[in-house]
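User: Teach me something about this protein's shape.
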Amino acid sequence: MSQAVSCPLCADDGGWVLWRQAELRIVRVTGAEATGFPGFYRVIWNAHVAEWTDLSEAEQGLLMRAVAGVERAVRKHLQPTKVNLASLGNMVPHLHWHVIARYDWDSHFPAPLWAAARRASHPERLDAIVSRLPACDAAIAGGVFRSRTAA
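Assistant: First, the predicted structure itself:
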């Protein structure tokens, strides 16, 4: 992995690693930023690049296959109301995609999870999603996509 000065995604995996290959890794986000959003995943390009157009077309295709594979696993195993896909990079200018399961009952829906909460959390509903995470994680770890370069 390329090491860029003070880049958190170069210095750390960015979550619990479910899949890793030379070009990218897929993690489930853990810690405070995932509180209330158990189906929060990231697909992270390993080399330190900031923009989508820093990648070749083949690399872009590989990254999008990974994002789509995570979305398919999330939809199948967590059955969200909606899946949010985002590649902002304003806070961390290291190319990565967020794949986030969203529910019409979650504390922030329909606003982004970075916005202010609109309602209280539903612990029982969150627990039900958490109970399905192992199956989703296993699907991702088992290779939600395959490439000739998979490690």
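Now, about its shape. Residues 57-78 form the longest helix (22 residues). The chain is about 30% helix and 20% strand. If you'd like, I can walk through any region in more detail.
User: That's plenty for now, thanks!
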